[in-house]
Specification:
Blueprint (H helix, E strand, L loop, with lengths): L1 E7 L2 E6 L9 E10 L2 H8 L14 E9 L11 E4 L2 E2 L5 H4 L10 E2 L11 E5 L3 E3 L6 H4 L2 H14 L5 E5 L3 H12 L4 E6 L2 H9 L3 E4 L3 H8 L5 E6 L4 H10 E9 L11 H7 L2 E4 L5 H12 L15
Parallel strand pairs: 10-11, 10-13, 11-12, 13-14, 14-15
Antiparallel strand pairs: 1-2, 3-4, 3-8, 4-5, 5-9, 6-7
Helix pairs in contact: 4-5, 4-10
Bound molecules: zinc ion (ZN) (2 copies).
The site of one zinc ion has 3 residues, from loops.
Length: 310
Amino acid sequence: MRALVYLGPRRMELQDVPDPVAGPGEVVIDAVVSAICGSDLHGFREASPRRVPPLVMGHETVGRIGAVGTGVDPERLGQRVVLKPILSCGTCEACRTGDINRCREGRLVGRDLAGGFAERFAVPATAAVPVPSELPDEVAVLTEPLANAEHVTERAVREGDVVFVIGSGPIGALMVRAAFLHRARQVIVTDTNPERLAFALAQGAEGVPGDDALEAVTAATDGWGADVVIDAAGFETTWALGLQGVRPGGHIFEIGLGAPRGTVDFFTVLGKEATITGSYAWSDQDFARSLELLAGGALTPDGWLTRVPL
Ligand SMILES: [Zn+2]
Ligand SMILES: [Zn+2]
């Protein structure tokens, strides 16, 4: 079969590789659509210590079950599934409450084992979640990224909140949708890329270019600041922008992978009594809720994907 193999920073090659085999308790997923995550891009561009070549990336995949290993219901053959890519131990304290993103033995498909940038790949049967029949492939493939947004907004957004989203790439745009699903009153989004900003507008937000963002947040909140800031960019400049834009007592969520370290103005953190919370991936509950939201028509399919054949 063909697979897109990562060979080192900025080197990826379409190669012929052996077909995967479903081991005990596993299934082989025949990939139909795989989306590219920002973390895949990050791994491709820089020498990420967590993505060791040779590696087949990809953890946002919809496909059909093409083979089942021993112990897996053969009735599942042909079933349409979405990949739930965090593989966790299932027994630790974090796993017992569904917080599988915090499992210390957690592995990620497409990082710690071969993933969806291939015609086929093998995973534990529990990582292949059935997709409701009414949900098209190109929407179902957004289950994992929307779960990331659900993980933030479920904790962050309360009814009537003004939310300031920094960065309107796919995750930022999903944050906009998810904030409204959690009954935000107003969402203001900023990005330096006008096309990305336009897409966030289509999700119902108000979009403002980088330089005017703070002014828009101030104007929308009588000078008070946003209740919630979601930083989907993650650079020193956006950390600073978030701190300027958040209201006293407000909440900043960091999800962007822009820069690993830099300067943060902690006098403003103290003075505003701001809370800064990190967010990584999603829990069992977020993933289930994301699939449920999509099945309920939470997103229109247009504009989320650019198609590239393998
Ligand atoms: Zn991802
Ligand atoms: Zn665990």
